[in-house]
């Protein structure tokens, strides 16, 4: 088997999200690696496992596994050994460490991280909030927001809000349009952090041109422009971004340059800035020197 062409089998008794993230993160460290992922999720019976083993035999390659059922793990271990494919149980080091810390054995019950608890419903509620408040809709709901993202059109506000919602964060996004004042609730002591997203003009123009192609060259959703050419004109876009940055600076809103950031990286920075905002709010007032 060519060393830079791999079949990687991801076997999980739940959704497989952990293995997907781990696999992508590891493979990204190898330049020009060609990988085909075979994702086997919700594997909780011997019949399901046998289908997985048939797939591994047909297209052999390393196996990353997060099964917790001991009987299925034993059968998988034996089969992989017979086929000569490497197998790694990715949860084992973490479980062993935590067992030592807790002084109790793990339950080894699949899917325990996916329960309909308060955290689950908080994420659902946050998702509904983002949908109903996308692109400046229902600005009266700002008082319920955990964070407000502002920025010019196509600066990744919406996808970032949805990613944050999956973390249980109610994120409202407000488009910044020259000549249109942001909501008054944001201008004077907003009830939550306000964070600006900015981007390189050339990258923004590329995104906007692609968007216009998708919608047939019509006006951008959310607001109309008298001169649509300004939407993708470099000089006009540069002025638009400069105006937005100056507005954020004037209001004391921190900004994030999303040009070379993934949605995940942008969201992680948003969460850090939210923590900073709350830390400043919770900081006790300085003692009166005169006293």
Chain-wise SSE layout:
Elements lengths: L4 E7 L5 H11 L6 E7 L5 H13 L4 E3 L4 H14 L3 E3 L2 H11 L15 H15 L14 E5 L5 H9 L5 E5 L8 H4 L6 E5 L2 H14 L19 H18 L3 E3 L5 H20 L9
Parallel strand pairs: 1-2, 1-3, 3-4, 5-6, 5-7, 7-8
- Number of domains as seen in the coordinates: 2
Number of helices: 10
Given the C-alpha coordinates, what overall shape results? elongated
Report the major sheet: 4 strands, parallel
E-strand count = 8
Low-confidence stretches: 218-226
Radius of gyration: 25 Å
Q: Please trace the helix and strand order, writing H or E for each element.
A: EHEHEHEHHEHEHEHHEH
**Fraction of residues in β-strands:** 5-15%
- The CATH C-level name of the largest domain is Alpha Beta
């Amino acid at each position: 088997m060519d060393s830079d062409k791999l079949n990687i089998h991801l076997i999980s008794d739940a959704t497989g999200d952990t293995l997907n993230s781990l696999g992508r993160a590891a493979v990204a460290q190898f330049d020009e690696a060609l990988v085909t992922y075979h994702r086997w999720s919700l594997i909780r019976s011997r019949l399901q496992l046998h289908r997985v083993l048939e797939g591994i035999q047909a297209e052999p390659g390393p196996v990353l596994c997060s099964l917790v059922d001991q009987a299925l793990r034993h059968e998988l271990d034996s089969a992989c050994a017979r086929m000569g494919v490497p197998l790694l149980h990715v949860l084992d080091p973490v479980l062993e460490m935590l067992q030592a810390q807790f002084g109790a054995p793990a339950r080894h019950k699949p899917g325990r991280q996916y329960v309909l608890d308060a955290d689950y419903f908080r994420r659902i509620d946050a998702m509904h909030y983002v949908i109903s408040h996308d692109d400046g809709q229902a600005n009266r709901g700002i008082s319920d927001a955990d964070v407000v993202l502002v920025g010019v059109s196509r600066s990744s506000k919406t996808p970032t809000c949805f990613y944050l919602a999956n973390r249980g964060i109610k994120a409202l996004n407000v488009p910044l349009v020259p000549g249109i004042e942001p909501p008054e609730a944001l201008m004077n002591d907003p009830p939550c952090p306000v964070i600006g997203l900015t981007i390189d003009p050339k990258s923004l123009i590329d995104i906007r041109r692609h968007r216009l192609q998708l919608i047939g060259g019509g006006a951008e959703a959310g607001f109309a422009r008298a001169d649509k050419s300004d939407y993708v004109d470099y000089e006009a876009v540069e002025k638009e971004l400069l105006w937005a940055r100056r507005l954020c600076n004037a209001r004391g809103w921190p900004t994030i340059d999303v040009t070379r950031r993934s949605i995940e990286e942008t969201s992680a920075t948003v969460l850090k800035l939210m923590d900073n905002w709350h830390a400043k709010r919770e900081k006790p007032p300085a003692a009166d020197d005169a006293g």
